């Protein structure tokens, strides 16, 4: 079910402004790929181009190709809304819907699709189990989602995302707003999730990248006022021990922010 | 905020014996603080004075009223014996306000959502300013326009409603008056609706704008269409605020004097036939009759004013309760 | 890294089912429709007022009163109404602004007990007083009860009752926006509380408070009902707000509109236009001021 992502010469624009330039990479299914690099170099923009969420910003567009198992997600007859069912996303700040209960939050993606809702409780249980949250909330599914702690809320968002059974899971710095214990819990979760999904995770935390991912891509700005570029993309172990590019090495060793 | 004044240094004030458990009275109150407290107390006194005074002035006429104040349909408080009741007025007030809201709420909400989500971004900011500005246009302007423009021009529409929907008692036309320009509750309600629309739209827009953008992203990332996103992520958290805005609009409609006084005639009848001329509201009635009212008449008018005040107060209380309950349910308040 | 292979066209899984697309489009149409439905009458109101108002507007209109002008005469103006409105607003502000500020300061800087909650609640209640009831109160209490008769001052009193809660609420909000670290730094310097409030907190919130006052004035400027019962209106210029009936702009619009003669109605439009222009100017000025706010709130 998890799909391969092929990115070919992808550049991301906001109107005339080029935010990301000429990225080419292949992400294998059922792997975790980490994207690291300094702030503001386009990692989030790049991530959002994988589920066409950057188009929500006025003027957001791309050139190049993104293929999901050989299918062009930017083909003219593709509806971005439908695509986002296949490519899920978890955000930096946990954002459960505040007016909904825990149950309703997990079910929200399914209810949108207008699919058959008979087995909703089963699907919700499965999603919450998959997100390592079931045991903690099974007795209070109808309570408001905001009653949960930050780490729990983030796992709730993960449950919500996987409830619609995507093929790819994008994660934009999912742990940066969480305490260390919750962070570890989610990293354990990611290790398990990769058996079912292709995972791409943007992170500021290099230790996290080396812990959870098999492949790592290093992004940085081409120069002051220039778009972000993918400098190096390789196995995580190699990136963190013998990086090929000097810029990567500078970043990893902390010589550069 | 706890008050902490230093015991040394420039401008220090000795707070009195520095002993734990000092009763509050033993500490001298800073003069400035005293002034502000006095101001607050003054407001309290003022409000109490207004309430007490008005009640005191209203009672005499109520005592003399030969008929039941709440159900009588006539207005002759200065007659001998005095006969007057609030039935027509209260009915007209509530009916016109409700109709106004029924018209205004969907349009105002639609406009607010439009400005926040659907309109091109550049245009949206200017539209926002425009709506805010329209909310400050004085009601007398709406009244003037309603009288000079709407009353003559709306008769076509009123006649249309009566001919095609006359089977609904609301729109029936027993005296065949809808083909003539008439000053009916319907017209008054339309003017009220136009007046109240910017208020509700402005508040709703502000509330919608404040919704956490992360929620919108979350909905979209799940594969929601634009409308589904609005429905799931934008509207639910905005509900308390929007209800507050609606209540504010309702309060304004209930208390609106001038626009209604200009547009309505002064006939007295309790009737659901909103397309017929006539009907009245409490506020417009006060404006129309206070000049020629004698002592008892004035007292009676004050009594109606008090009823109106109670109405707006009730709306206020209901609004706060609803908002508070919504906030609790959202987990924002325990 | 693979070279670009010929990609198959997207399969049917990335399409939206008919019903969802339909509902989405319907909603879009509904929103645009709502916008149009709102724009038409509101646009008409503004269009008419400005159009008809400009036709009658002139410098003479602003500088003459209605003294000696009959309902069917075509001259006459609103000078007496402008004088009245300005004086009434000045007096109302003189009462409501200091009082409102003091209450706001109390609520935000000193409050926190039951008394403050009570006051806050009552201020909230006051915002809901129908304007005509405020007028009724001043009529019964001052005009008739104390036998002072109609006057601009009575009108100003009614207006100040309406202004007070608005000023208080807006000021309290502005004061609340002043960041606590600023207060703490000032206290840590050993500055007494009252001085912190007057010399540090108030100036920081100054722009926001000014904006709030301007908007309160703009709102109250258009109130007709309370003035009907208190200042009562007149054809003549009355520069003494404490004695005798006084005219006001909204009152003028009302009585001219109610009279119905073409000459009066034309004057009503022109006066209404003047009123709107002043209110809009106040609003725009308040908006521009917000840009230069020290706290730079959105």
How would you describe this structure to a colleague?
The complex is a heterotrimer of chains A (257), B (334) and C (298). With 257 residues, chain A is of the alpha/beta class. Chain A has one domain (5-252): P-loop containing nucleotide triphosphate hydrolases (Rossmann fold, 3-Layer(aba) Sandwich), CATH 3.40.50. Chain A is built from ten helices and ten strands. Chain A has a ten-stranded mixed sheet with strand order 5-4-1-2-10-9-3-8-7-6, sandwiched between helices. In chain A, helix 4 (120-130) crosses helix 6 and helix 6 (150-163) packs parallel to helix 7. The model of chain A has no long low-confidence stretch (mean pLDDT 91). By secondary structure, chain B is mostly helical. Chain B has one domain (83-329): Orthogonal Bundle (MetI-like fold), CATH 1.10.3720. In chain B, strand 1 and strand 2 form a beta hairpin. Chain B starts with 30 loop residues before the first helix and ends in a 5-residue tail after the last helix. Chain C is mainly alpha-helical and 298 residues long. In chain C, 72% of the residues lie in helices and 0% in strands. Chain C has helices at residues 18-56, 59-63, 79-110, 114-127, 131-145, 152-177, 180-188, 193-221, 225-230, 249-259, 262-291. Chain C is globular and about 65 Å long. Chains B and C meet through helix 1, helix 2, helix 3, helix 4 and helix 6 of B and helix 1, helix 3, helix 4, helix 5 and helix 6 of C.
